[in-house]
Amino acid sequence: MISTPKPQPQPRSKPRSAYGVRAAVAAGLAAALLTACGAGGEDAATTPEGWSTLTTDRLTVAHPGEFKQVAAADLAEGDAAGAVRTKGGSPAGSIYVEFDYGQGINDADMAGTAAEARVQLGATPVDTTDVEVAGPDGTAEARRVDWTSTSTGEEGQPPKGTPLAGVMVAGLDAKDRPYLITVNAEKGLLSDKDVKDIIASVSLK
């Protein structure tokens, strides 16, 4: 997990590196293509053809098919679901879903602020923007937090010095409980369209 110099709601689960990639296992189930498209904000979520879906009891989110889902037994404490992509046997990208990652989070702004608190010292915050994701009763507000950093070469990371790009999507589920979706990857591994498609695929329960 990643930290920040700003005092913010305290994370519940144990720390994880800024990159957070762990060993991947069996591929996920392919998801059906739904109606609507874009970077969030449509009433129905979309899943691009060939992508797979992380399914939890609070939300679903899609990821490129090259990412392989992590078995429940291999998830870190606090992670509800995850998928990892490797290149040449080395970790290259990951997506993880986490719930209840801070205390006192009761709206999208607070969820975004708590997500910003994960940006590691030494990383460079890029932007925080408003997005919308699909929910059972229409769209729901969320926050997108972007940052960049450089791999330290620690276990679970790409080789030392590799430029990384990170995106978090933070908000409240249909029962007003906080969720956090964290995407970390070698810079250039995911296109801007890929990231927008990930956000557009989020469906709250």
Q: Write the element-wise H/E pattern from the N-terminal end onward.
A: EEEEEHEEEEHE
Please provide the count of β strands. Answer: 10
What can be said about the biggest beta sheet?
Answer: 7 strands, antiparallel
SS strand fraction:
35-45%
- The end-to-end distance, rounded to whole angstroms, is 25 Å
Share of helical residues: under 10%
Mean pLDDT reading: 82
**Poorly predicted residue ranges:** 1-42
* Structural class based on helices, strands and sheet pairing: mainly beta
Looking across the biggest beta sheet, what order are the strands in?
Answer: 3-4-5-9-8-7-6
How many individual helices? 2
- What is the molecular shape? globular
Radius of gyration: 15 Å
Describe the structure.
The chain has 205 residues and is mostly beta strands. Helix content is 9%, strand content 37%. Strands 3-4-5-9-8-7-6 form a seven-stranded antiparallel sheet, with helices on both faces. Strand 8 and strand 9 form a beta hairpin. 46% of the residues are buried.
What is shown here, in short?
The protein has 205 residues and is mostly beta strands. Helix content is 9%, strand content 37%. The relative contact order is 0.24.
Provide the fold topology.
Blueprint: E1 52-55, E2 59-63, E3 68-69, E4 79-87, E5 90-99, H1 108-116, E6 124-135, E7 138-150, E8 163-172, E9 178-186, H2 192-201, E10 203-204
Antiparallel strand pairs: 1-2, 2-10, 3-4, 4-5, 5-9, 6-7, 7-8, 8-9
